[in-house]
Amino acid sequence: MNYLLLVYSPESAWTREEWLACTVASGHVCRDLQAQGAFIAAAPLHPVATAASVRVRNGASLITAGPFAETTEQLGGFFLIDVPSLDDAIAVAARLPSAHKGTIEIRPVHQLDDVPSDRFTAPLPDPAERIRYMLLCYDDERAWQEAGAAALRSAQATAVALTHQLAARGQYVAASPLHPIATATSVRIRHGKRLIADGPFAETREFLGGYYLIDARDLNDAIAIAALHPGAALGTVEVRRVVDLASLPERNLV
Amino acid sequence: MTSIATAIAEIFRTEHRRVLATVVRLVGDFDLAEDAVQESFLVATRQWPKEGLPANPVAWLVSSARFKAIDAIRRRTRQRDLEPEIARLAEELALVSNELSEREINDDQLRLILACCHPALDFQVQIALTLREVCGLTTEAIAAAFLVAPATMAQRIVRGKSKIRDAGIPFHIPGPDELPQRIEAVLMVCYLVFNEGYSASSGDHHTRPDLAGEAIRLGRLLCALLPDAETFGLLALMLLHDSRRAARTTSAGDLVLLEEQDRSRWDQVRIREAHAWLAQAMAAEPIGTYAIQAAIAAVHADAATAQATDWARIAGWYDALVQASPSPVVELNRAVAIAMRDGPEAGLALVEALQATLIDYHLYHATRGDLLRRSGRASEACAAFRQALDLAQQEPERRFLIRRLAELGDAAGAQATIAQ
């Protein structure tokens, strides 16, 4: 089963040195997972100050600066892993240094057969021309219920078609819908004790329903792609730049 | 009833939850497992009277349910021929061996309990799922026990089952690193179920199931599956509390304080059983918090009269409890024990040291009032009882405080508060 581990922590709680040390420790976890065949992908994200949020209403894109929700802890990175059960995912989350300062939200990932195969391991085709972004798709469950099952099915088909268009342009890395928020679990470590809670790290009206990882020319290109996601019409797509691990000092490489 | 019909009924009663636990582990889905188990019991009622009881009824029922589940999966996949994972499950299920040891069946029950009490589930959901899937209570009965609408309870149970399935909560017994923390969670659920049943003083007892009794049954099962000192301690504690059930309320539903209870109405069978479990719980090092609480309850149980209570021993156990699990409420209880041993003034000093943390807790004021009353400081006692009355929520507790105020001649205070 694939799980997305979303790392939330207060950005202000990290010094640059601590953050680098955290990427090193997280890199060790990734290497161990790789040895077990459980690693798919992981990366830190640039700070939320660099985020943009996209909504499409009445056919027009509304772009705002900042993340979709202002919270005390911010999404700082993700880990995508393939492990047998939630207990294994919790064990991985508990090994991450960020679990001590923040919250790791664990979300089971829907695996679709009809999307292009992921390109996590392939190098950027043209590093000078491409930047990797994560599009975080926040959905409003009630709005989709009101829209009806047919609208939902058609939106899913459009989203899958979008992945193929992106792949044809060499911009597709990966994409997945997530299981509903009711399946979320949050892990924190405080005073050496593992605290596990039902539910996401923050209760919000719109919740993370899926993600795309794309290689775009620039933020404008990423925003244009975000606006093509059918969920942007009812919810919000947050655009976050992924930290290129190759840009970190050598010793930090995963 | 013929003897075979009696035997079948007995097997259904004792083995139904065990069969379900194994089938849930095999198919990994509650609804599928429940339907399959129900069908397999139906087949048994038709087949066994004709062909006689199988040598191993549990293995027979599990095997029959397994094939019913395979059929159901195949029907589903034919209907919408996607989901290769589910088709693979059917193939795997067909290869499972029919042999089931007693050990495996017990482990399956434990796996089910651990999944139902998984910390990734909401606490309310853990309790509901445990009562439904492990204890076999109906959704309606659980709803009645918690005074919520059956639809609300049904939704809670559905939510729990889908989280177990969709989030991939495993049916497995964790390793020694993690197991103690998980056992703690299971015992907590069991104790909460007990307290819910024990403190329930309202509601129609004919329609509300006996949650305290269910918790004790669950506690006995846990002692068999998880022979751990704290599990023994919890069962002893629940049995000791439950032994006083008939004596702790009046027919009008008023609380009767421990010192005023008719001790001839305490259930001696429960007390004897508790002592046996407690002796086993005491063998552990260090002694756990449930065992210490049970030891305190056992000192009370052993006193023929309230005056004969060995307060020195109780105070000693509270010292141990403060060490093992420090909290202001434990400190408050320790102060009461010390007051009983050394006199009210000694207790009062300890109680008043807790004022800052317990100022909003009605029992802080009630305890302080009682110690002041016993020190002969009636007007201060009245003031403390009035503060307790302002904070107390439960009707029996409020009636008790009003009674105390009246006894102290503070009729005005009691009346004024009632009028509020």
Describe this structure in words.
The complex is a heterodimer of chains A (254) and B (420). Chain A is an alpha+beta fold and 254 residues long. Chain A is 28% helix and 34% strand. Chain A has helices at 16-36, 86-95, 98-101, 141-147, 149-168, 219-228; strands spanning 2-9, 39-44, 52-57, 60-65, 74-82, 103-108, 131-140, 172-177, 185-190, 193-198, 206-216, 236-241. Chain A has a 6-stranded antiparallel β-sheet with strand order 2-5-1-6-9-10. In chain A, strands 4-3-12-7-11-8 form a 6-stranded antiparallel β-sheet. The radius of gyration of chain A is 17 Å and the shape is globular. Chain A starts with a strand and ends in a 13-residue tail after the last strand. The model of chain A has no long low-confidence stretch (mean pLDDT 90). In chain B, helix 1 runs antiparallel to helix 2, helix 11 (229-243) packs parallel to helix 13 and helix 14 runs antiparallel to helix 15. Chain B has helices spanning 3-27, 30-51, 57-79, 84-94, 102-116, 123-134, 139-145, 150-166, 179-199, 211-225, 229-243, 268-281, 289-302, 311-324, 328-342, 344-352, 355-358, 362-374, 378-391, 395-407, 411-419. Chain B has 420 residues and is an all-alpha fold. Chain B is elongated and about 80 Å long. Among the domains of chain B are: 3-100, Rna Polymerase Sigma Factor, Chain: A, CATH 1.10.1740; 101-196, no CATH class. The interface between A and B is medium-sized, with 22 and 18 residues.
Could you provide a short overview of the structure?
Chain A is an alpha+beta fold and 254 residues long. Chain A has 6 helices and 12 strands.
